[in-house]
Write a structure and sequence with these properties.
Length: 295
């Protein structure tokens, strides 16, 4: 038995297992002769489990939130949450004051448990630094120049939206932690909406292929007969192989691959009385199953 968390990648309409917990039973215990002695002194084959989470979840995070500029990291998992970039001026004395001010802000933010760093390299201009840290997906960029210094302000730029926020320097310690929470909540809400919009509830087979061609996942009532799983895989693979080139904007090729059961959701929608299987109309449905293409 496998319990899984399925992630949905909006860019290509495929699902990916973000985390899994496998109950392997005694299969591998028998295969490799892995035994234990129970309380009665009798040797038995061990039962095993297998868990997967870390690297695949990082990959999912990159694919789901990233954009054409690079990574877009959720603040709680970003190694750097705020990157400070000084805006240089011809006056060296003003430049020194700007850097000193940034160091003071960095100290305050670290005191507020914000992971902040400064990019004070003088061999790169601000535009190069912006692009460099955008690729890395740092949630907030903090810009500070001589004019900002005189006004007692700094400019925050959100990586996820590009929004610029002018903030008083004496407020950063309290407002930036709250802004990071807002960025995280907004990113989660956008990803949740994409997931919700990607799930199409169907009850009949003729509704499946049109939804698949739109890069959707299918939530359908299923009889859970194993033979139907293989039939559905073969049928959807053949249908897509014979389909025309995708007409989406940009000329993207049609998404290929067989549809398969991704998971049987733990939170089950109500099953109408007398509901039949979406594939075998002569078989009663047992549970709602989520279907789609995956990696």
């Amino acid at each position: 038995m496998t319990t899984t968390v399925e992630a949905y990648v909006d860019a290509n309409g495929r699902a990916i297992q973000a985390a899994t917990s496998h109950h392997l039973g005694t299969n591998f215990g028998k295969m490799f002769d892995i035994m234990f002695e129970n309380e009665k002194g009798v040797r038995e084959v061990v039962h095993q489990t297998s868990w997967g989470l870390t690297t695949r979840s990082i990959g999912c995070c990159i694919m789901i939130h990233g954009d054409d500029k690079g990574l877009v990291m959720p603040p709680p998992v970003s190694m750097v949450q705020v990157i400070g970039v000084p805006i240089p001026f011809k006056d060296e004395e003003k430049n020194r004051k700007v850097q000193d001010c940034l160091r003071e802000i960095e100290k305050k933010l670290k005191g507020a448990s914000v992971r902040c760093e400064l990019d004070l390299r003088e061999n790169y201009n601000p535009g190069w630094k912006y692009a460099h840290w955008e690729v890395k997906g740092v949630p907030l960029r903090m810009e500070l120049g001589p004019r900002d210094l005189d006004k007692g302000e700094c400019v925050l730029v959100r990586r996820d939206t590009g929004e610029k926020i002018v903030m008083k320097q004496d407020e950063v310690e309290t407002k930036i932690p709250e802004l990071l929470k807002t960025v995280h909540a907004d990113m989660l809400a956008r990803a949740q909406k994409k997931l919700d919009d990607a799930i199409v509830k169907v009850t009949k087979w003729d509704e499946v292929i049109p939804a698949l061609q739109k890069r959707k996942m299918i939530l359908a009532p299923w009889c859970e007969e194993l033979a139907t799983e293989k039939e559905i895989k073969n049928l959807t693979k053949e249908t897509e192989a014979a389909s025309a080139v995708d007409e989406e904007e940009g000329g993207a090729p049609a998404l290929t691959g067989a549809m398969k059961p991704l998971c049987i959701p733990l939170d089950q929608p109500e099953m109408p009385a007398g509901q039949m299987c979406f594939y075998k109309s002569d078989q009663p449905a047992k549970r709602w199953c989520l279907w789609g293409r995956s990696y």
